[in-house]
Design a protein that fits this description.
It contains 10 helices and 9 strands. By secondary structure, it is an alpha/beta fold.
């Protein structure tokens, strides 16, 4: 048996085609007590074992490499490894070039793996990206925001709440016949009632603590009101608590005492009137201010109305006695709004 030149492990060497080893020949000669110099007897044993030729035909054993000394082995382990980034870096293991032999004719050491030098090497080796690259196109638009009213009937509901009823429609033939039957002279032709937006709209927006969660809904609703009524006929004022003392179109420090708009204007109030705040509800002094405000609007010929983000069963009684109130909710229909706002 002899050592393997590359791995250093003992490996049997085959001389014949029968799987008989040289060690088997040595063992047989020793067991039989045959003198190795007796060529005749040795030749017979070789023939019986199935080996080719005679002992003289066998290849002489090569001079095997001796195991390294312990001191040399310790020095080899203590030496720092060569940098893979240097000029003498080993070739990758998949290289087709054979390994260079050492000085004693044996195979050289196995090469070290060369690490990738950067992200560019990784991209070149990987054919398809793990995730699609982000494009340079325009960013996706933010989804449209729907107000609290039903989207399909929102325009019709707002037109009903913002308009006011006037008798300027077609001639009311039933009332005209009744007047003829009484024999009284007609002062004016009776006409059917219709709704109109020509008087304009003033929107009072509550910025108090109870309406902070509805800030975006208020802004979107003002945009829709501007489209329906017209920018020239829409006036927007902001307040906190009550607009009676301070209100204005800009920042809080610019607010002034409230003044009613022109006669006939619909005044729409977007507020929770303190009902959606934790506690006992709206203070009595605040209800007094709202009572003074609605009285001022009616004396000026204006029509107040309110959109409240509460269900109808939670409307406070003082509020419904002061002005028409419509629930600012998806359950509100145009028919309900028309029945509550004259």
């Amino acid at each position: 048996m002899r050592e393997d030149r590359t791995a250093g492990a003992p490996t049997p060497v085959t001389v014949g085609r029968t799987g008989i080893w040289v060690g088997d020949l040595a063992r047989a000669l020793t067991w039989l007590g045959v003198d190795p110099d007796d060529g005749e007897k040795v030749g017979r044993v070789v023939t019986l074992l199935g080996l080719r030729g005679s002992v003289s035909d066998l290849e002489p054993a090569p001079e095997w490499r001796a195991a390294p000394a312990p001191e040399a082995e310790e020095e080899r382990r203590a030496a720092p490894p060569a940098s893979p980034r240097g000029a003498d870096a080993a070739a990758p293991p998949n290289s087709a070039e054979p390994l260079p032999p050492t000085a004693d004719g044996t195979a050289g050491p196995l090469p070290l793996l060369s690490p990738l030098t950067g992200e560019s090497d990784i991209r070149s080796a990987w054919r398809f990206p793990a995730l699609a690259e982000r494009g340079d196109g325009p960013a996706e638009a933010e989804p449209a925001h729907h107000t609290l009213l039903p989207p399909n009937s929102e325009t019709a509901t707002l037109q009903t709440v913002l308009s006011r009823t006037v008798r300027e429609g077609e001639i009311d033939t039933h009332r005209l016949l009744e007047e003829f039957a009484t024999g009284r002279p007609l002062q004016n032709l009776p006409r059917l009632p219709v709704r109109t937006l020509r008087f304009g709209t003033q929107v009072l927006i509550d910025l108090g603590p109870g309406m902070e969660m509805f800030a975006r809904d208020q802004d979107e609703l003002v945009n829709r009101i501007t489209v329906i009524v017209g920018r020239h006929a829409t006036d927007v004022l902001y307040f906190a608590g009550s607009p009676l003392n301070y209100a204005g179109p800009g920042a809080g420090w610019t607010w002034r005492p409230y003044r009613p708009p022109a006669a006939g204007t619909r005044v729409l109030i977007l507020s929770g009137f303190g009902c959606n705040l934790p506690g006992s509800g709206t203070a009595p002094t605040l209800w007094q201010e709202w009572q003074e405000l609605t009285g001022l609007l009616r004396r000026s010929g204006c029509r107040p109305a309110a959109l409240v983000p509460l269900p109808p069963d939670r409307f406070p009684a003082p509020l419904t006695s002061l002005m028409p109130v419509v629930s600012w909710d998806r359950s509100t229909t145009t028919v309900q709004a028309e029945s509550r706002v004259p």
